[in-house]
Structures are given as C-alpha cells and as structure tokens.
Prior knowledge:
By secondary structure, the chain is an alpha/beta fold. The chain folds into 2 domains: 2-158, Rossmann fold (3-Layer(aba) Sandwich); 177-259, no CATH class. It contains 6 helices and 11 strands. The strands form 2 sheets. It has a 6-stranded parallel beta sheet, with helices on both faces. It has a 5-stranded mixed beta sheet with strand order 7-8-10-9-11, covered by helices on one side.
Amino acid sequence: MNVAVVTAAMCSGARGGAEALYAGLVGAVRAAGHDVSALEIPIDESNFESVLASYARCYDVDASAFDVVISTKAPTYMVRHPHHVSYLLHTLRVFYDRFDAEYGAANETLRQQRHLIHQLDKAALSPARIRGHFANGRTTFERLYEADSWWRHVPFKALHHPPALDGFRPPRRGEYVLLPGRLHRWKRAALVVRAFRRLKHDIPLFIAGTDNVCADDVGERSSREAITIPAAKAMRTAYTIVVLRVDIEPPTRVPGFQAAAAPSRPRRGPLRSY
Length: 274
C-alpha cells in the first residue's frame, strides 16, 4: 500500500518528541513493506487566526494519491480521505485541560474560540470519517472524556510507541533515576518530584531536558545544574540539558555526564499546544 503519515511542521521551529515519533512511525510502516511518505503540513499556533488557518490547511490537503492516511496531532486529523486512520498525539490542549489554568476567568471571546475548536475536533475525529482511532496513551483521550461526554462514543485504543533509543543496559539498583524530556510546566515534572518526596529511601532523581525550566515548578529546594549527556551522540543530536537535582546531595558530577553551559530561556508563545 501507499501510505501517507500526515504530520504537523510547527512554524515556530519547535521540535520534540512528536517529531521523533513521526520518524519512528514512518520507519515502522516502511519496515512492514509499504510505501510511505511524510506529509508535513505547516502549523502556526501564534494566534487564533493562524490556528484556524492551520485547520483549513490540513482540510485542504490533497491525499488522493495514497491508499491510506495516518493523521497525528492537531489539526492534521482534518485531512480528508476514505481510509483515514487517526493516531492521536493530542488536540490543542490550551482549549481543553489547560484552558482554566492558562486563561482563568476567560472572557466570552476565548470561550467562543474554545467552543469552535471543540466543534471542529468532533467533526474531524467523528467515527463517521475515521476508520481507526488510536492514541499514544489513555491520558490523551481521557482528557477529551473530561471535556465532553460526546467523546466516549469514539472507540479510542491506546497504542504506546517504543522509544527511539536502543542499547539500554540494566540499571544498578539505587544509583539514580533519570527523567528526560522537555522541561515545560505542562510536562508535569513536579508530579514526579512530589512522588519522590514520599519515598522512604534516598534515591537520587535527575530531571533532564530543555526549554523554559523554572525551579519553582519543581520545588524551592531543587538546585539547578547544566550538563551534557555524551550518549546523545548515538541519537545524532547535540543536547544541552538542564538538570534539577531534587532534595538530595548527589555527587558533583553524575557518572558519565559532562558539565556544560545552561541554555538561554526562550520566549513563551501565546498558543503552545504541547
């Protein structure tokens, strides 16, 4: 079969786990013996007008040359095709579970914007136009359940993707736990910190990643140190990583890690979906 994986190419230039998943998905479909192409659709979330234009851009994609299309995160599922499979990474969360936290007592304009996005998403992801509904985890569609009971009639199935890394070695018991990922407050690293503070054993926790990290997000007693993981070379990516050392007295250098300069804090955009 000739398969298209429809992906969101963020106009902001932001790249993260979604892009790694796209590459893995394309590779897996190709390894299964199919012809596959990645259709990258420019997505702009800088303001609401640009968000709507991105929805329209995905809707207007001509995918008629393909036997099957696989959509991913918002709003790629707007694509039209008789054999459309959705592998949902997330909707625009700022209009779902993050709405109250981001906008508080939102005005009528924001509430109308949220309503419009919800209506577009329901129409696009309706079982009447999607052959299969998958998501990268239960949390993805449970957020939709919480937003509107309408979503409960959509037959979502959780399909967990494997990590892009290989060559893992068994950890040494009690050495430390590493939580890698982009350090944004929506990623809930603070939840892991709160869980670790309930442990009865003193196990070092290292939270590593890039983005606009704030020590307040993980607790006042966290300390900040920038490091580089040489093993990242195996991923053909140069990482500068901020590590929050949580409530422990770790060695001055984590085994196998090397000191480096901390990245500058990027400006936060008005509409980041994550």
